[in-house]
Amino acid sequence: MFQLDPDLEAFRQEARKTAERAFRDKAAHWDEKEEFPEENRALLARLGYLGIVIPEAFGGSGAPVIQGTILLEEIARVCFNTAVVAQIAINGPSRAIAVMGNEEQKQRWLPGCARGDIMFAIGISEPGAGSGMTDLVTSATPDGDAIVLNGQKAYCTGGHLASHIFVFARWGKTRGPRGIGALVVERGTMGFEVGQQARKMGGRGMPEAELYFDHCRVPRENVIIAGDPDSTRSFKRLMSSFGPERVGNAAMCLGVAQAAYEAAKAYSQEREQFGRPICEFQGLQWKIADMAVQLHAARLMIYRAATNLVDGFPEPLEAAMAKLYANEMVQRVTNEALQIHGHAGFTRDLPLERMVRDSRGFALGGGTTEILRNTIAAMVYGRAFDQRRS
Fold first, then answer.
1. What is the pLDDT of residue 269?
2. How many helices (H) and strands (E) does the chain have?
3. CA 34, CA 200: separation in Å to the nearest integer?
4. Least crowded by CB within 10 Å, which of 138, 173, 248, 365?
5. In the 8-state DSSP scheme, what is residue 177?
């Protein structure tokens, strides 16, 4: 199996012990009650995990992406909702700001992110712009010392709780990827309101919210990258910031699948039918073998993407491939693990049904598996393919 260097392996063991001790017992609670795991977020902050990859100069640990990846894997292995909290902190807007923000912005926001005082969410999707995100219509209009923001965002994970929102918007009267940039909107800004929360199939401890911007005046100093109406440069740079999110998404898939595999393997050795343990039946042996192979392949792809950085972000092709494979792998593995448990796995007395529900959303957020295939094909061919009707 994949061998980490001694320091990273020691960190894995530390993270696993922390997750087992602090997060396992209430994992079902956050799902059942659809309650945000605030106490877990506070603990992550105290342990320094929220700022694990934030540079030391801005209050973080300055750890490499691979260390944050391992942390997410181990947290997701015991509590999906807590892993999502960590994912947004580690691979969300703070990572983009650390790489793309100016010095003043880093000093203003990153120390608070590391301490847990600041909680970011990201506003990209809109009612009419999901996979086709370059159809977004939220507008950013310069006006004196401010940017006037108008529009609506949908399915914003944790948007109702966040203190700051990293918003994608359009500068100028443009279409497609031209003119898309990003800025930070702080909670309490006039013209910014939180709408309804979506009731989800999985990840129910981390709801998603609608966000509304009605002549919302955002200080110019909150602009991370202004949209360029004459080119796609700003959009392409912003899209590169999806690399960490995609690797983190894949790492959480790996953690959930690892837990399902471990549960299925243990159950197959304990459960007896026809007078012997069910692990002695070849049909189930093949299931366990396939699960082990898929986990191994996913881990290699994810760790490779987490250690191969380009301009501060994971190499785009490897990040996309890792997410695509892991998104589909976790659905296969959790489904087979539930099957091995029989009807017991279908009940809410065991975590298998929750793992199946939680794992389904991975293939939707951060780029659907269909969009990822288009993205990978474009990189393989070396040219973009326009999906729009001419």
1. 97
2. 14, 12
3. 9
4. 173
5. T
Position of tokens 């796995």? 345
Q: How far apart are CA 69 and CA 330, in angstroms?
A: 16
Report which of 74, 2, 131 is spatially closest to residue 248, judged by C-alpha positions.
74
In a 13 Å sphere around the CA of 70, the CA atoms on its Cβ side amount to: 25
Give the torsion sign (CA, 357, 363, 365, 368): negative
Rounded-to-integer distance, Cα 319 and Cα 327, Å: 12
What letter would DSSP give residue 221?
G
Nearest CA to 178 out of 259, 232, 239, 122 is that of 232
Q: How far is CA 284 from CA 263, 274, 329, 371, in A?
A: 14, 14, 18, 34
181 within 8 A of 225, measured Cβ to Cβ: yes
Residue position matching structure tokens 């539930």: 338
Q: Centre a 10 Å sphere on the Cβ of residue 274 and count the other Cβ atoms it contains.
A: 7
The angle, 0 to 180 degrees and rounded to 10, between the axes of the packed helices 233-240 and 242-270 is: 30
What is the spatial distance between Cα 123 and Cα 283, in angstroms, rounded to a whole number? 46
Q: How far apart are CA 354 and CA 347, in angstroms?
A: 9
Residue partners of 360: CB distance under 8 A and separation at least 6: 201, 202, 331
> Tens of pLDDT along 273-327?
999 999 999 999 999 999 999 999 999 999 999 999 888 789 999 999 999 999 9
- Of residues 11, 121, 112, the one with CA closest to residue 69: 11
> Three-class SS of residue 78?
coil
